[in-house]
Amino acid sequence: CGLTDGCWSTARPGVFFTSKTDGTLDVWDLLFKQNDPTLTVQVCDEPLQCLRLQEHGRLMACGSQSGVATIVELSEGFYAQNRNERNLVNAIFERETRREKILESRHREMKLKEKKGGAEEEEEHRDEEHEDLVAKAEADFFAAIENEKKLRDRRKEEREAALRNGQVDEEEEAGTGIGDAEDEAEEKQELEKVEEVPEQAAEEKGESESAEK
Question: Which InterPro entries does the entry mention (predicted)?
Fold first, then answer.
């Protein structure tokens, strides 16, 4: 059932009243209990629309949806103020205010942790992607080396098989060997020429000095 109206007691600071669409009047006493109404009265069979309380807090007028007003007399316990009731009610409100602030701070901390956790998860995900790329590059590199090695081995095996089967001309092989020897001889001659240059320069220098004398 939905609430339609409410008002605080004019005599007691810890008592208030609420009306509902089912025609009932709820009386709440915070010093007695706070989660449920202390008293529930069926005033009429139609929704109550408004509540008005007497100045001394003993009589209450309840107006229904059809315009009928019902006067309800309250018991003395709902309008006679207790000792230190105002201080007790203020303590209840202060405690609830502190509780609400603690809940709000915890809620903010939870949101910050969730946000921080999401950022850490995203960073970890980026690190994992980077590691995957590095691992893939390494795997491709070693696979290329392995393929090149296999290709060279296959070519070597094919050449050896061709030699065994007599498919390669022996003269060509011999020519290849002679060509290699000639290349080595040419390199040797070049080195000897390079070594002879300093000796010739020294001899020419000596001859020029003796001629001057």
Answer: Dynein_IC, WD40/YVTN_repeat-like_dom_sf, WD40_repeat_dom_sf
